[in-house]
């Protein structure tokens, strides 16, 4: 007799009447493999079942006592039966998302914890493109006790690049203190932390794309502001506070309407 911790391979045999209405449910009878006319299933065969015949096969939850996190993604393949609970196919475990199936002949979950779901292929492509194995986690992602401290040589290199940018493009020194620039750089650093060494062209877009996106955002803001002002205008409940001034350089006359409501920009031209 096998140990309680060992799940025996499954075998199938043909039973029932193929012409009966319930033939799909009774076509396969599960039994422990034994000498005789039985056919052992492979993990590949079991894997294809819920993919090709989702109405006949499913993946059920592991309702036993388990501590491993992998069971949030894995379950047991089973045959769907009418008017009764699905019948588990012993000896296998399947991913609930991509239905990848492994032989499960012991209680070891090592292979399950290493599983990369096929729904994460896009993430894996990014990791592989940047020389990072998708099956290995970055050690820095497990130990985030404090922020990293740059070496003096790295700090100096950043200073050199900042100075070169400001001088070559004739930018004001204060531009390096701009809050928008710092938010942008911080987001780029966070993306690099998640995916590794990412090419800058994958993150930053060109002038034409930026201009088009600004036009799109401006139109969205105009629509939102118009909708918020529509009701007060219809009820004669809007007060405008005009502010007229002249540009000291170009001597252009300008007008401004200020609205201090939350969610609206301070200046609506």
UniProtKB/TrEMBL annotation:
Residues 254-263 have a biased composition (Acidic residues). InterPro entries: Hermes_transposase_DNA-db. Pfam families: DBD_Tnp_Hermes (PF10683). Residues 163-204 form the Hermes trasposase DNA-binding domain. It comes from the Eukaryota. Residues 245-269 are annotated as: Disordered. This is Hermes trasposase DNA-binding domain-containing protein. It comes from Rotaria sordida. The lineage of its organism: Eukaryota, Metazoa, Spiralia, Gnathifera, Rotifera.
